[in-house]
Amino acid sequence: MPTIVFIEPDGQQKSVTSVTGQSLMQAAVQNGVRGIEADCGGSCTCATCHAYIDPQWAERLPAIRALEQDMLEFALDTNAHSRLTCQIQVTDDLDGLVVRIPHAQA
Ligand code: FES
């Protein structure tokens, strides 16, 4: 089972054992990661699951789709590494992935 490293808005690191096939958002919510609200439950309509993906991992992730890109316009403090965590499925290849939650979502 892959381990995902979430860095919460205050800098605190939380390593979470995830299940292959669930989304990064689900892994965060189920493990009480602060700053991932996921108000829409994963239907890509709220942008409250926004996070920054560590640049080293960017190429291993699925490409961003138009709906996710559009919804990111409603997220706080986006940058080139922004993704919506509900749109990324955990795979074994993502073991060790580092995900940072923006300060604005504290
Ligand atoms: S949980 Fe709402 S957009 Fe991801």
Any overview of this molecule?
By secondary structure, the chain is of the alpha+beta class. The protein has two helices and five strands, in the order E-E-H-E-H-E-E. It has one domain: Roll (Ubiquitin-like (UB roll)), CATH 3.10.20. 13% of the residues lie in helices and 19% in strands. It has a five-stranded mixed beta sheet. The longest helix has 7 residues. The mean pLDDT is 96. The chain binds FE2/S2 (inorganic) cluster (FES).
Q: What topology emerges from the helices and strands here?
A:
Blueprint: E1 3-7, E2 13-17, H1 24-30, E3 50-53, H2 66-72, E4 82-84, E5 98-100
Parallel strand pairs: 1-5
Antiparallel strand pairs: 1-2, 3-4, 3-5
The protein binds FE2/S2 (inorganic) cluster.
Bound ligand species: FE2/S2 (inorganic) cluster
State the distance separating the first and last CA atoms.
28 Å
Number of domains: 1
Ranges where pLDDT stays below 50 over 5 or more residues in a row are none
CATH class: Alpha Beta
Number of helices, counting only DSSP H or I runs of 4 residues or more:
2
Could you tell me the number of beta strands? 5
CATH-assigned homologous superfamily: Beta-grasp domain
Can you tell me the CATH topology?
Ubiquitin-like (UB roll)
Global outline = globular
**Average of the residue pLDDT scores:** 96
| Strand arrangement, major sheet | 2-1-5-3-4
What percent strand? 15-25%
Secondary-structure element order, N to C: EEHEHEE
